[in-house]
Protein: ADF-H domain-containing protein
Organism: Chenopodium quinoa
Amino acid sequence: MAVHDDCKLRFLELKAKRSHRFIVFKIEEKQKEVIVEKVGEPTESYEEFSAALPADECRYAVYDFDFVTEENCQKSKIFFIAWSPDTARVRSKMIYASSKDRFKRELDGIQVELQATDPTEMGLDVFNSRAR
């Protein structure tokens, strides 16, 4: 599976400049390539990120999660989400599952990985518990 240069470029912008809140990646099956589907502005909310993931199709996503530690320090962690809803096509789930590790290696700087099949598996409570 090829990875479009734009994927790495956008991820670097998110990581280094914090110029995006999230990025949703899609596998173009015909081209056998991972592409950027949507980029979220820094002001966009978690709800807007969650809404950007289709209910019945697989995606990869990266989310820049801000939180406050018990010591009252402002921190952020970059989450990688493998979104694979139960209602997605079996073939699609297999392609995303088999390409995930290779794609993730292209994005240097991911701190937490989540596998989600429905929105509750990647709720803010999950982000909060995994970030600490």
Q: What stands out?
A: Residues 90-106 form the longest helix (17 residues). The chain has one domain: 2-131. Residues 1 and 99 are 7 Å apart (CA to CA). The chain has a mean pLDDT of 96.
